[in-house]
Amino acid sequence: MSNVGKNIRKLRTVKKLSQAAFAELFGLARPSVGAYEEGRSEPKMETLIQIAQHFGLSVDLLLTKELTVNELYGFDIFKEQLQPPTPTAEEIAEADRQQNVTPLVYRNRALEYIVKHHDPAFIDSLPWLQLPHQLTGPTRAFEVSGADMLLHRQGLRHQDIVLCCRIDKANPTLKSGSVYVFVTQGKILIRRLAGRLPDSQILKLRADNPDYGSQDLELSQALEIWEVKGVFTTHLRPPALLDERVAALERKVEALLERLNDHS
After folding, report:
1. Taking CA atoms, which of 1, 130, 212, 250 is between 20 and 30 Å from 229?
2. d(CA 240, CA 244)
3. Neighbouring residues of 44: CB distance < 8 A, sequence distance ≥ 6
4. Is the overall model pTM greater than 0.90, yes or no?
5. Cβ pair 165, 134 in contact under 8 A
6. Is the pLDDT at 77 greater than 80, yes or no?
7. How many helices (H) and strands (E) does the chain have?
């Protein structure tokens, strides 16, 4: 069992919340909070993420460490974002040591990856792809979910696999127009970088599909950043609009030549 029930009880104590008030805060039934605290059940992953984000804790910390009340009093738990420690050389996943080996994150394991992305044992437990590429450093492959990055039948399709290389969060070099995978506390987001607000850490992101609109992301909210370098798909790519026009023109020329031959 995880420590989440004990930590929920201590969070309520520090913030002087009743079980009913805590339940209302996260859209839960009051008996559910009691069941969590008594260890009879555990919150769904979506609820865990909401609790962690609200109190400024990482989901991993909420699950794996039994926090003391004194520790909680030492945090500004509405504002401070606790980040997992940077792994040492000995803690780097075996998959990240090997060339041309890429751990694959399927879309149905996205929430699990958010929680355990820094755990070498978890990374090694993911499926490994062996792909020929010239990328250096750790790589990841993510399964695309949805049509956010699809426009005029061009772009990233649902269930495509994007191959990515890691961006150093401490000193990120991000290029406007490039596509990145942002691992945040709430979701794994694939977006094109539209720009960066001057003198700030706010990134302007957009989906290629205009139905999804644009959004801002505070750089500190990204647990990991990966730059998309390639895509693997089982879909046949439709011809580009220019190719379609050329093909239509060729058909018209062929039809015209046939009519000329008939009259000659």
Report:
1. 212
2. 6
3. none
4. no
5. no
6. no
7. 10, 11
